[in-house]
Q: What sequence folds into this?
């Protein structure tokens, strides 16, 4: 497996949901109300959330990620035949305060301490990202928090990855992009970033002719690679 060195990059850019923030923590906090199938409910919510971003991008009918998250939650609740406005409101509120993965803070501290530019690039709205970053106390570890809202389309459209170039004044081949979403890492690789797929769920690779430069299991593995390269 090839290795990246800190001298190879000028910036490291992280996806937010699923990479730094555990999107399942919203439903997990409500598992008493959702019942034993809360994980399946969470998986449905997430799957439809992503599907809606792709469909809206293809149709040219953009709406922001908060609305997408709301609409996909409605689908997930309908799928379990549940009508509960108070639970729905609670789940949406929990999405603003997701848990950071245990390895996320340590990884951000490492790269910030290495004087590397550190950023988030996410489908989330600026207000959603600000809420998540502040709740997890990550603000001081980030140089940029970039939202797709400035280009009005979702990942993996190339215009989203171009935001990193335009806002951070870096060259694509000097950017390490890190995502736990395989399709996102592929999109970043296709754009020209040094893409790393953090395959938290040990999924098979997608066959899309383009592949991330490397695959790791956790952000802890990412830090170890840079430490020992």
A:
């Amino acid at each position: 497996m090839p290795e990246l060195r800190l001298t190879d990059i000028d910036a490291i850019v992280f996806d937010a949901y699923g990479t730094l923030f555990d999107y399942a923590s919203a439903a997990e906090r409500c598992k008493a109300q959702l019942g034993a199938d809360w994980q399946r409910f969470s998986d449905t919510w997430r799957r439809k959330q992503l599907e809606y971003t792709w469909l809206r991008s293809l149709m040219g009918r953009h709406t922001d990620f908060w609305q997408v998250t709301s609409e996909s939650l409605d689908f997930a609740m309908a799928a379990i035949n549940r009508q509960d406005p108070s639970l729905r409101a609670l789940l949406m509120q929990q999405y603003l305060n997701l848990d950071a993965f245990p390895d996320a803070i340590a990884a951000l501290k490492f790269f910030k301490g290495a004087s590397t530019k550190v950023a988030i690039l996410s489908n989330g709205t600026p207000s959603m990202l600000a809420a998540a970053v502040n709740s997890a106390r990550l603000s001081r570890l980030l140089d940029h928090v970039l939202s797709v809202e400035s280009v009005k389309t979702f990942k993996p459209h190339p215009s989203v990855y171009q935001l990193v170039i335009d806002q951070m004044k870096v060259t694509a081949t000097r950017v390490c992009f890190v995502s736990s979403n395989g399709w996102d890492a592929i999109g970043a690789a296709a754009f020209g970033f040094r893409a790393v797929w953090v395959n938290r769920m040990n999924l098979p690779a997608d066959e899309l002719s383009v592949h991330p430069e490397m695959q790791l299991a956790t952000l802890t593995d990412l830090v170890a690679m840079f430490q020992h390269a």
User: Anything to note?
Assistant: The longest helix spans residues 38-59. The longest strand covers residues 117-122. Residues 6-22+98-228 form a domain with the Rossmann fold fold (CATH 3.40.50.1000).
